[in-house]
Structure formats: structure tokens, C-alpha cells
Design a protein that fits this description.
With about 325 residues, this protein is α/β, with parallel strands linked by helices. It is about 35% helix and about 15% strand. α4 links the parallel β6 and β7. The longest helix has 15 residues. It binds NADP nicotinamide-adenine-dinucleotide phosphate (NAP). NADP nicotinamide-adenine-dinucleotide phosphate (NAP) binds next to α9.
Amino acid sequence: MVTNVPTIKLNSGYDLPMIGYGTFGGKDAPHQVYDATKVALEAGYRHFDTAFLYETEEALGKAIRESNVPREEVFVTTKLWQTFHKPEHVRPACEKSLELLQFDYIDQYMMHWPMAWEFRGYEFKDIKVKDENNDIKCIDVPIIDTWKAMEQLVKDGLVRTIGVSNFTIPMLEDLLRKCEIPPAVNQVEIHPSLPQEELLEYCKSKGIALTAYSPLGNPGYSQGGVIKTLEEPVVLQIAEKYGKTPVQILLNWGVARGYAVIPKSVTPSRIKANIEYFKMDPADVEAITAIGRGKPVRTCDPVVMFGISNDVFSEHKK
Ligand SMILES: NC(=O)c1ccc[n+]([C@@H]2O[C@H](COP(=O)([O-])OP(=O)(O)OC[C@H]3O[C@@H](n4cnc5c(N)ncnc54)[C@H](OP(=O)(O)O)[C@@H]3O)[C@@H](O)[C@H]2O)c1
């Protein structure tokens, strides 16, 4: 099916559809993503998000290869896990993702988090690196060293676009000063409890596209203070005005603000409904942005998730 979903022209020259499909879903996702991706392709999705961590690359790649949608029409992002940050581990990690996807190239390879952990091997079992005290051993690998190895993947034709995820403005500033190929995308958490206005403005000014993860605030997940996005009165009121669902309003709020959104669902009716694009009045966009202004709350707080007390993420608290 052809949709009217707009695209963003990336600084790498490729087009990123602004409504994509996320494939992170915990332990059941590897089994659900094959069928869900087939539904998504049929519904018109051409932008898919995965990561080595999610264990969904294999199912996603299989569903895409078996479909009648030409490979060239699909944009797939996958990500480098932080146990692979040493420059000599970057290419083998990328090759492992290519092998799981069974693709000749990756559309976008992204640095998943701006920190490096001890390497223990290339299998899924090797990337859970908490020790007996539940601590993670961080290692000292400068971001630019990992990035240079990622630049080489573009030069060698394994990857078309490189990006980052969970980067703050100071981290982007530093990378932009040192890199040869600038990041095309920064994938970060954005929803009404975390509108990320400053980061959005900064990235626009530097020609870096944003992709919003957890664009619905991951309803159903224990949210640690994130508003109930689908029950928020402002969102409900705007949904009624447009005759759309709260989820469709949240996704199109993101598109109207100029970034891509990658909602995850394994429910066919939701997958189909989530890709409906429509324009929203600037006043309605602003009303949703105002909900979480000045009181940011995350579902994916690295300090909480990884148990790392790290100054690197102090910017995330702002
Ligand atoms: N770069 C990173 O560090 C990072 C971190 C987190 C996530 N991500 C990416 O972003 C993607 C999306 O984020 P997310 O999965 O955290 O959260 P999300 O997309 O905000 O929320 C997913 C949840 O919303 C439900 N949902 C989806 N459509 C719905 C609808 N129309 N009505 C009601 N509920 C609906 C899904 O349920 P069902 O599946 O049961 O339908 C699922 O429980 C991930 O899959 C992953 O690809 C990246």
C-alpha cells in the first residue's frame, strides 16, 4: 500500500519516512516481529527500527526479504551495542547484524548509547555484562574512536548512513567538532512528558534529523512518572477535534514538529491505525508540547536502567 507519510531528507542523501515501526518488545518480540512486520509492510511502513540488543534483526530481515516490497524501498536502522565500542569490534558487530538481517547493506547503523562497556563476545549471551554485584564495567573508549570505525563502514559500503542515539547537545557538539561524516540522525526518547525542545532546535540547526523513540510514552510499561499519554485531557480533547485516536494525535504531533516517530505494536489493528498521517494546527501542536515543558520524565533513564552513576548523563536530568 502507498501512504502519504512524508519523508526527511537526511544529510547522507537518503530519505527517512517520518512514521516508522519499532521492534523492541522484550522477551516475546523475537517471536512476534516476523508476523508484525508483514502486517506493517502491507500497511505501507517503509521505515523499520531494530538493534542487536532487541534480538529482532533476524525476524525483521526475513519478513522484509520474503515480502514483495523491493529492498531499496525499505529503510532499516539497526544499532551498535556498547560492548562493541572498541574500534576493532565495530566491523565484526556490524557484520553480525548483516548476517542476522541477511542484507547486503544496512540503511542506517546507529551508536545505541554514548558509552562503552567491556567486550565479552559477539553472541547475544555475551552482551549482558552485569557482574556478580550487578555492576557494569565501563571502559574508556572515546566516542570519536568508535565513530571513526563507523565512518569506515560507510566507506566500505556495509552501511549507507550512520547515526547516534541517546546523545545530548554537548555530546553532539563534541562529535561534530571531531567527525568526518556527521551523524544523520539522533534517536532519542520524545513524548509529551519529554518534549525535548532544546535538542530539537539544536539538531535542526545542525542538519541532524531526530527520531522519537517511545513516542507514545510506552503505555503499559511501569512508567516512573511519565504521564498516561493516552488519557491526558489535552490529547483527548485534540483527538476529538480531529476525529482521531489519542495515539494518532501523539504520532502526528511528532511529525508536525519535524521528526520521525517509530511506535511499536504487535497488534495488527494498531499497526494499521498508527501509520495514518494528517496535518495538525500549530496551536494544537503547541498545546501538546506545553504538557511536559519544564518537567521532563523518561521511561529510558540510563542511570536507572544500567545502574550507572555517570556524569556523562547529567545533561539528561535537565
Ligand atoms: N534507541 C533507544 O535507546 C530506544 C529505546 C527504546 C525504544 N526504542 C525504539 O523505539 C520503539 C518504540 O518505543 P517503545 O516500544 O519503547 O514505546 P512506544 O512505541 O511508545 O509504545 C509501545 C507500546 O504502545 C502500545 N501501542 C502501540 N500502538 C498502540 C495503539 N494504537 N493503541 C494503544 N496502544 C498502542 C504497544 O502495545 P502492543 O504492542 O501490545 O500493541 C506497546 O505496548 C521501540 O520498539 C524501539 O524500536 C529505541
